[in-house]
Structures are given as structure tokens and as C-alpha cells.
Amino acid sequence: MxxxxxxxxxxxxxxxxxxxxxxxxxxxxxxxxxxPNVRILRLPCTGRIDTNLLVKALEGGADAVLVSGCHPGDxxxxxxxxxxxxxxxxxxxxxxxxxxDMRRLHFTWISAAEGRKFQQTITEITEQxxxxxxYRPYEAAAAQASIPSNLDRACPAPAPxxxxxxxxxxxxxxxxxxxxxVIGYGARGPVFITKPEDxxxxxxxxxxxxxxxxxxxxxxxRALGKPAIVVKGCDERALVVLEKxxxxxxxxxxxxxxxxxxxxxxxxxxxDVHQPRFADDLVGRQAEAQNQPQTARYAGLEALLAKTPDExxxxxSAEFDxxxxxxxxxxxxxxxxxxxxxxxxxRPQAIDAxxxxxxxxxxxxxxxxxxAGRCVGCDECTRACPAxxxxxxxxxxxxxxxxxxFAYRAGMDRMADPPIGAYSLQDKEDFIG
Amino acid sequence: xxxxxxxxxxxxLVADWLAAGKKVFGPVRVKPGLELYAPLASAGDLLLDxxxxxxxSIKELVFPRxxxxxxxxxxxxxxxxxxxxxxxxxxxxxxxxxCDAAALTxxxxxxxxxxxxxxYNRRRAATTVITLACAAHDDQCFCTSVGLGPAAERGSDAxxxxxxxxxxxxxxxxxxxxxxxxxxxxxxxxxxxxxSACQPFPAKxxxxxxxxxxxxxxxxxxxxxxxxxxxxxxxxxxxCPACHCFDMVDEGNGREGVRARNxxxxxxxxxxxxxxxxxxxxxQGARQRQRIYHKFVMYPEKFGQILCTGCGNCARNCPAGLGxxxxxxxxxNG
Lengths: 433, 334
Hints:
With about 425 residues, chain A is α/β, with parallel strands linked by helices.
């Protein structure tokens, strides 16, 4: 079984208990020979295979990974394979943008009756991987490529009148007892106004970057009572997702929308939600024509994807090498609301806690995947990062995948089904063997 | 004990250090709008002109964010420890701010007060710090409020004062003196206040008032109110030159692995979470109070100096506009 150079690839196969595992069993009982390079992990259903596990296999020295489940229509749990298929579609886009070698990642459907297909699949993958050689993605990192960011946008200065209107609304809501607290922007950062006479602390200027909806998850803020929250059109998208995910009840919340001409950030260049759409109170008027983005929505991504996979991997290695694991990206994210993050769990430890390259890749892959089809593109993670990691590019990757493959943009339509958690029988599977 | 050195000569010297295999660490522009202290690939990367405040600190030289301490191998009934101690190359921080250098003396104390931390000390012993006296300051700077200043010597081995054609070089320690041929034969001793290019600016608050408030108002709604905007990340602590909390982790599989220490931060809700589920600092107010209390009360009572050098990185890096300065000003002037 030894190759010319003595290299024996290690293949890790994550297989479904009800189909592929039995297919492998059949191959054995039928005396079909296949290379012994595969390590089979039997799991209840491909629908429950966390993509972190695939990353962990590659981290641990796998030269290729196979995930194999039941053919469409055959799932023991009706739809687990359809859910898996959707996750893989997004996961592949993410790994590709990171610069992983996509020839190392295989997906197949193999039924319990297909012992021969199992034999052929393992043989093919083993031979292909043998030809490719060992895979140590994190050790590669050749010359560092840089991704230019020249999307600075000069935004018109907010009208002073808007600030007065905003204060009036806040004062009125607090005086009438309709809300207990107004979450808004102050001179230095977010402020939490509880008395009508303090409403003048609210500001509306070019520094109102933050997406305040992240405070809705914080128990210290929840304890203050019913809030009114100041949102821009982009921030409001997070409310749509939070409501969809049953994290907030719209009737427990008063939304003060402020028309925004942009805050001079990268995201503002392609903004098409200058005007909040679902607010209870709307203040300000937009100076510019609405929905006229100055550039394509995923403009920043083109420069990244134009690079070779090795260049992309080098770029991300350099970016992630600066990561301190301060988790500012997670903490400012309105949609990272888990009581206990997977990164903080250590039994089992899916993600290395250490801020070394392996641990940082694992963390940023998990963060991006957990926001796949959910991220509303507020870019707070990127703004908050003290190490200047361009997390925006990862979010854009998945946002574009969700839009092109599922015609879905998170937080735009209150009725639309999110891509993860739903499925379609027509989902693309040209990448599944 | 002082000498003149031109910009060109200084860069040449840095290039020589790099060529000699020394690890040189200084302010570099990583990308537009992002300056960090980082290992220099070449002397040309070093940012010395103007006033540049890197978003991180030089503590990584002596206290890396991740450090593998030792390895282990498990076989049948025994555990074998594997020494990972690699040779630490001589490392030089150049262009450090006085506030970064001063923080090293605070770290020295905490890593040596009961037991001597061999991992910290071996890096510290290999480190020389050349400070660039500040030519300017920004809104977040407050070194003069915590007993330091734009040309403070504490923690430095040598100081560069910008002059018209280059720098006036002053040695503070023997170690600093030996790095520069210009200083050969001179006496190395602290010089007292040097001629800073930046006039010391007025203090923004009184640290004694902050300490008194924190002690007298331990249970006070001030902390909870103040902490509402805090998102609970570690950006302040991780970019602070003086914060030094760490966590220990074992990484590996059932047969072998390493024990490592990683930075940790008091603003995380899990920092003090007990296995029982009880959390003595159960809300963000208590965690914000801890950060101020440690810096202005606990550490000074134990070690006689404030655990804050006024660099302002906490406020610059805070996504919510918090940090030591805003809180201290609210207390100190309120």
C-alpha cells in the first residue's frame, strides 16, 4: 500500500449511521477491498455534523475529509441530509474564501446498499490525496498578500435638526412612561437614558457607528425595563433576525429609526437601507436619494477571490496571527447571543482556546459559520477588532453565498425563511459525489 | 551619558541588530489606520517620525498572548514532562512609548513577588527597551495623571529625544548603554527629567481620589450604571501594557500535548465563574469595578505603584467608548 514517496494519506470520513456506515459494512462483508487509509467516524446523521469537526480533522492532520450521508429522500430522520447539504454549500464557500484546498473536502451520498460505491469512493479519494501530498494548511503561509481597501466614503454630515427630533421623541416616550429606558448614542459612546430630563444627552452625528441592538441581549440592560432603541436602517436588520429567532418580542420594544446618510464606513458605500423600514418612530430625512448604492454589494470581496488559494491562505494567516482572542467581535455582535459560546466550552473542546494560528482559524471559521445566513453586515466585529482583522470579508463571503444560492439577505424581509434551518429539495448538489 | 545620533545612523543600527539575529520590535503600520508594535522585518518598517500610538503594547515581548510552558506524554501508567524551553533570542523594543516601558516594572513585580516566574523572567532578561520620548499626546493620553510623563524613564534602558536632525540619546541602564557605540565609555545612570519634545500636560484626574472612591463606594450604583455600555470583551485588558491575567490550558490528545498559558481578562463573564455555577462577579458593573479597583487600589497597596501608566489604549480600543480615563475622570472630577 505504500506510495512511491512513502506518503500514506490520512482520510477522515464522517458517515451517517443509517446509510454510509452500513455501506462500508457491506463492502467489508462482500470482501470488497479498499485502501486502509480511511478512519471512519460513525455519527447519527449528517444533519448533525458540525462543520467545526471537519475543521478539527484537518487541524489534527487529516489530509482529506469525507462526509457521507443518505441520498435525498432516504434520510432516517426525513430531512437531516437536506439540512446538511445547505450547511455544506455555505461552508464550502467559506473555506474557499479562506484559501483552503477544496480538493481535500469531499461530500457524497452512499446508501446501505452501495458497498461498491463506498469502495470506489474511498479508493478514488485515497489515490487523489496521495497524488496531492500531505495537507498542512496552517504551515503554508507564503508571502503575505494584501487586500486593498479603498472604499472610504465621504458621507454628508447629519442634519442638526435630526438630533433635536430624536431628543424630543425620547423625552416624550420616557415622560409618558411608554418605555423605561432609551438606548441611544451619547457624546462618548452608547448611553442609557432613563429620565426625560436626560434626553439631551442623546446625540446624532457622524460618530454614531455602533449597532446598539447588541445591548438587547445583555441582562444588565434587560433589567432596566422596556427599552426604546435608536437604530439606523442597517442596525434595524439585526432586529428582524432577532425577532425571527425569537430573541426579542417586537411588542416589548420601541424602535426609534433614524434616517441615515452614512457614517463614512465601508459598509455605507453599498448601503441600500438608509431609511429604517419597521420603526415605530422615524426621525430625520434622508438627504440623498434612497437605495442608490455607490458600488456593488460585494465589491470588497472581488479583490480577495481574485487571489490564488495559497495567497488567500497567506492573507488570512497574517490577519489571524494578529488575533488576541479578546472576543470583541463576538461581544459587539447583536446576533452572537448564546449564553455560553462554543469557544468557551471545554468539554469537549471544539475550538482551541489559545490565540495561536490553529486556534484562531478555528475560532474565526466557527464565528463566521454560526453567522452564516444571519449576519446583517453591520460590520461591528470589524470596527471593534483592536487587531484590525478584516472580518468583514468573511461575513461578505457568506452573505453573498446566501444571496446567490438562496436569494436570501438576512434582516431584509420579515417573512423570508433563513437559509440555515430551512431547506429546499432543489438545493444545488453538483459538488456532492 | 548622552549622545547625538542621526536618523540614518539609528536605522543603520537597527538594520545591524536585525542582521545579527536579534529580534527587534517596534511600531509599524500594518495597514492604513492600524499601527501595532510588531517584529520588524526590516529597519525601513520602523515608524519613528511623528507621534504614533500603536493599538497594542510591548508586553508581548515578555508576556506573550500564548506561551507553551511544557509538553507532556502519557504512556500506560506514567506521565512524562517534556521541556520546551527554547533559547530566547536577544530582543529589543525600539520606539516604545514611555507608558509602555513603565508598565514592564509593574509586570516585574507581579511575576516575582512570591515565586519567580521562570518563563517571564527569561524573556525579560533577554529584553532591552529603547523608548522614544513623546513629541505629542492625544485626548486619551493621561500619563501625567498617574505620575509619569512624556519622557518618563521608568522601565526604559535608553531614551531617544527627537531633535532637528535625529535624536538625543540617553542611556538609563548599562544594558541600554551597551547597545549604542555612541554611548561607549559614558556613565549609565538615570538622568532625571530629560528634555522632552512634548511639554508635560496637566493631569486629568487625581488617582488618590479614584482609589478613595473605589474603596468607599465598593457597593454603589455608579459601577452598574457605568458598565451598561460595556459589551464584556477583553479589548481593554489585552491592549493594556500592564494587565497581566492569564489562564492555563492543556492542549493535545489522550497521548501527548502541551500546557500553555494564554491571556485572560476580567471583563469576561466566565473569568470568575466557579464550577458550582456561582459567580462572585455576577454582573458587568462588578467586573468594571474590579478593573479600576485592581489598578488603583489593590496593586498599589501591595506593590506601591499604580497598575496603569496612562497610555489610553483601553479607551482607544473600546468599542463602546469606555476605559480607565473616562471612568477616572468621572470619579476624580465628579
